[in-house]
Design brief:
Elements: E1 2-8, H1 13-24, E2 29-36, H2 41-57, E3 61-65, H3 76-90, E4 94-97, H4 107-118, E5 123-127, H5 136-149, E6 166-169, H6 170-177, H7 180-184, H8 190-199, E7 205-209, H9 226-238, E8 249-251, H10 259-263, H11 269-275, H12 282-290, H13 302-315, H14 321-341, H15 347-368
Parallel strand pairs: 1-2, 1-4, 2-3, 5-7, 7-8
Antiparallel strand pairs: 4-6, 5-6
Helix pairs in contact: 1-2, 3-6, 5-9, 5-15, 12-14
Bound molecules: ligand GDX and manganese (II) ion (MN).
The site of ligand GDX has 24 residues, from strand 1, strand 2 and helix 3.
Amino acid sequence: MSLVVFPFKEEDTSVVRRNLETAARHPRVREVWAVAASPGAMMSEVEDAAADVASGAGTPVRVFPQERIGSLRSGKGDGMNTAIAHAAERGFERTHFYDADITNFDRSWIDGAEEGADRGYGVVRHRFPRAATDAMITWMVTRPGLALRFPGTVLPRLGQPLGGEILLTRSAVESLAVNDRVRARSDWGIDTMITHATTLLDIGIYEHHASDGKRHALYGSLTDIEEMVLECLDAVAEVEGSPDKGTRFDADPPAGVPADLKTTVGYDVTATRRSISTPITDDESVIIQQLGLDPSDLEIDGERWLAILPRILTEFELTNATWRSVFFRLWAERVINYTTHWVPLGYDRAISYLEGTIAEFESQGTTSA
Ligand code: GDX
Ligand code: MN
């Protein structure tokens, strides 16, 4: 029987409530958990909603705060690791994770994951179409990093290595619950860690395609996800061990992209430009020059990114303030360059361009390995 977990921090309670209810009413679901970032006001609102949902659906819905498990910033990773530890103790056959802010969550997400597990896959990941300017951490950092570091394996193939929507069978949960590197990753790096760790288990991976996309709370300037990009970069630089090239991996066939996603703008370009318009400091200049760049010309096209990302991956320091500001600046320049040169050519060309950049990173990873 299955458990469904929603980690949450600050979200619209009515959205969280609807998601708890969808999960609680699913016939395969035995329990629903909502893991709070902290025991605050938000948690008590969700507790009220959960009590209501549980009595209507006849399924236990538990709300509890995350524990301090990891050694980095306490964030979503502590939330997921708290749930993983308790799920391992309880021995659920399957544990699903979903972000609490999804506005189009319905039973088809749970059905899709359950079907993959019914067919014998140990991990089922949801993938979905995204706007051309969305997923800029996935496209510019995580997939390139995995392609460089693990060419020829399943890791560069995964559509959404950062996705928070995933089903883990019991053996996956048990092994993650005792994995020190996963447990240490208390921050936004958790998704990368779990993705990587599960590819080493040799239990099969399936990607389920959620064709309507994932509708959820949007951000404005790229500065809103500055912490996330830094922590995700650190995570992809830190993962250790290559999956076997023969890991069993299958995915739903690609499907059409909803029309509105083809025109959605993923972030605020003007506000992002403003955030990186401050003068470069002397300390920042040193790192920029070490990367072989000229501080007075920071346009970062695909070719430059291909040249500097390998060095960034080996030299980046998450706790070094200069490295943090330099990396954010370079990544924002890269995203703006892509947005102004490729996005105007249309959705399909932009996405196939991005896919092509991953292939380039992978072949560079193959020659340097
Ligand atoms: N318990 C707990 N603790 N939950 C948290 C925390 C925390 O410190 N921080 C965030 N959450 C919850 C949040 O409420 C939501 O349910 C979920 O985690 C994801 O956070 P959100 O702010 O919606 O992240 P975003 O920008 O949508 O990113 C998500 O998708 C990315 C992706 O699709 O690529 C998130 O799952 C990322 O990890 C993922 O990389
Ligand atoms: Mn979200």
